[in-house]
Structure formats: C-alpha cells, structure tokens
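As practice, study what follows.
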Amino acid sequence: MFDLLPARSGRILVCGHRGHVIDGHENSRPAFRLAAELGASLCEIDLRITKDGRLVVFHDDILDNTSTGTGLISQLDYAQIAQLRTKARNGMPIDGQPIEPFEDVLAFCRDLGLGLIVEIKDKFEGTAYLGKVVGLLKEASMFDRVLISSFDYVVLRDIKRFAPGIRTMGINYHRLVDPAAAARSASMDVMNTDYPQFAPDVAEGLHAANIGVSHFLPRPEFFALRRGYGVDYFEEVDAYLRAGLIDMLVCDDVGWAVDFVTDCGLKVAKLDPAL
C-alpha cells in the first residue's frame, strides 16, 4: 500500500482531478496518460452505474454536458452508452473518447503506474454496488492502489465494513468544527478539504489522528485576478507544503502542480512499482 502521509518525509502526492483535464479531456485515456507523463502520483475518477448494472467512468449523472449523447446514464444500458464519445465540457475541440467500463480504466491506469481515487457518486441501497466496486478492484490487482472517495460518509463507513483493508477519502467543502472526529466517524484514511476552507488547524488535527490531508485547488488561472489585487493564495499553499501540512494536492493541471511542489523544495511521491 502506498503512503498516505508522505508529508512526514518531505514528499507530496499529486493527483490529477479526472486526469490532466486542462486540454479538454476528462475521465478518459488521454487525460490519464498525460497525467502520468507529467508526473502525477494518482488520478481521481468518477463512477456511474448503467441501467444494466455496468460501472462506467463518467462524472455527471446525465450524458448531455460531456458526451455526444443525452439522457441519464442510469436509464441506459451499457451497449447504448458504448456507442457514444466524450466531448469537452468547455467547448474545446477534442478527439472524442469512449465512455469506458471501470474495469478497463483500472487496467489502463495500473499499466501506467498510477494510483486512483475512485469517487462513488451514485445513490444506492444495500451492498451490491460496493461489491461490484471491490470485486473489480481485486480482479485488476488495484485494491492496494486505490482510495475510495465520496461526499457521502455513510458510503465510506459501509465500504470499510464490507471490505476491511480498503482505504477511503472523505470529500469536504466545509470548515468543520472537528474534522478529525468527522473522519473517525467514517473510519476514513484521508480527508480532502476544498479551497477556500483549508486552514492549518484542519491539517494539524487530522495529522494528530494519523489521517492524511488532501487539498483541492481550482485551476491556477482562477487565482490570477486575485493575485493582481495583492492576494496570493499560492504563497499560503507554499507555506503549508513546506510546513508538512498537506499530503496530497488535487488539481486539474498536473504539470502546474508538479512544478509547484518542486519549486517548494519537495518531491512528488511515487507509488511503489511493486504494488
């Protein structure tokens, strides 16, 4: 299993959010391949389930925004979805890619040497969904290279009960009163805090409980206007990294994140190729 607390040894995991997505691709092979080439440790992907029970890698519940199709994924069989191709969310011209089954993406990213953060987005009852996820991870020899993530902490609690040994990450948009207590309630291994809610005391409390700290940053251009007004959040992130407060940066632009970590005098953590 890869280290989820690498900041203790001056290293940082860099995660490509849906891969390296600034060229218009997301949750597809070009995004994952480029993330690996640029030096990512992991990629975050999103799971959806089709009408006939196939898990596919796609962010939205509807096809309309980022594919050539329309409608709800949950109302279509995989054979129908397999005929479609991806399109860029921002209108950039790209070569459309297949909407791939989870097992194919697992194998592809395993061969690239990437770990994965697998976000479960669907609502479901019982453990059949979790059983599909865990079974495919084991078949692909990716069980030890994956974090299961969700905004739904009940899902994270339940998958730990269903598959002891699996590791999880809770996604958090808020400034919690006691982040470590929230993390412990779901037995999570990592908690991600999105900008702008991150603060040093969040990281310190999580680290005191041996819970990894992840921080999601918007794209660098998001901060450009603010920097023009004299507010430079990157200076704060630099200080957080140098102080060992962050174990993983999650960003759309993998190349920028890798360069930022290096400029801070730190190393990007790599997964053990023997995993």
Observations:
- The chain has a mean pLDDT of 96.
- Residues 6-268 form a domain with the TIM Barrel fold (CATH 3.20.20.190).
